[in-house]
């Protein structure tokens, strides 16, 4: 096998249409930030370690369920909207195939394809209705009718990753330590590691991605800690 053929066979893209990466990343980050900030606020208000753990687990369960339901509803609604638009395009192709072919040829010609060639290809698609539908939907809506994200995959990914992220700042308490600051340090480390892992998919520098997540989480934690301190002092 030649070097050229090897390069061609090695050239591939990651699957970006499965619907799991975005909810997984969002769920993990949200779980980390939410529970780190939550225990910082409660701990800053002077709560005992037992109450901090109780609050953290309540936030984990409530947040994971909310994230899972939210992702399912969001992705399902998007799929239903796409399905409605695909059905509309199917009706337009059946009612006016010549006009739709001209519309497709015009779009390709505007992108630099020779007019004659654009018209030939668009006209050829008229003899294959399903392929014509796929191409029109891709051109006009920017989606692939055969590759829509799964709402169940999105919901499960979000639920599990939120739970995992929210558990990180509680680990030290579960191991018997009672220091709020130790829990926050472990949570911050979790944020940095999660951001660095995301860099494997985005091809960004791992320390930049990790540092960004740590900085955002630290800002949220500082805000809730100050709120907790103010409310705790005021109540006492």
From TrEMBL:
Compartments where found: Endomembrane system
Keyword Ribonucleoprotein: no
InterPro entries reported for this sequence: Ccc1_fam
Keywords: Membrane, Transmembrane, Transmembrane helix
Predominant localisation class: membrane
Topological type in the membrane: Multi-pass membrane protein
Transmembrane segments: 154-175, 181-202, 214-235
Protein name in the entry: VIT1/CCC1 transporter family protein
Phylogenetic lineage: Bacteria, Bacillati, Actinomycetota, Actinomycetes, Micromonosporales
């Amino acid at each position: 096998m030649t070097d050229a053929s090897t390069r061609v066979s090695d050239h591939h893209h990651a699957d970006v249409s499965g619907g799991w990466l975005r909810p997984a990343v969002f769920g993990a980050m949200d779980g980390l930030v939410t529970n780190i900030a939550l225990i910082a606020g409660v701990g800053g208000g002077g709560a005992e370690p037992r109450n901090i753990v109780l609050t953290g687990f309540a936030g984990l369960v409530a947040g994971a369920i909310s994230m899972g339901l939210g992702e399912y509803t969001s992705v399902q609604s998007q799929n239903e909207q796409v399905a409605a638009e695909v059905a509309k395009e199917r009706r337009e192709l059946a009612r006016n195939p010549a006009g739709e072919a001209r519309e497709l040829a015009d779009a390709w010609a505007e992108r630099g394809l020779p007019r004659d060639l654009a018209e030939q290809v668009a006209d050829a698609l008229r003899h294959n209705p399903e392929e014509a539908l796929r191409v029109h939907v891709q051109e006009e809506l920017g989606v692939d009718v055969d590759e829509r994200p799964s709402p169940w995959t999105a919901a499960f990914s979000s639920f599990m990753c939120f739970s995992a992220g929210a558990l990180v700042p509680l680990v030290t308490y579960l191991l018997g330590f009672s220091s709020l600051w130790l829990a926050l340090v472990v949570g911050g480390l979790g944020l940095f590691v999660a951001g660095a892992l995301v860099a494997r998919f985005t091809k960004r520098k791992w320390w930049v991605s990790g540092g960004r997540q740590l900085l955002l989480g630290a800002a949220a934690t500082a805000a809730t800690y100050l709120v907790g301190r103010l409310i705790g002092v005021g109540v006492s």
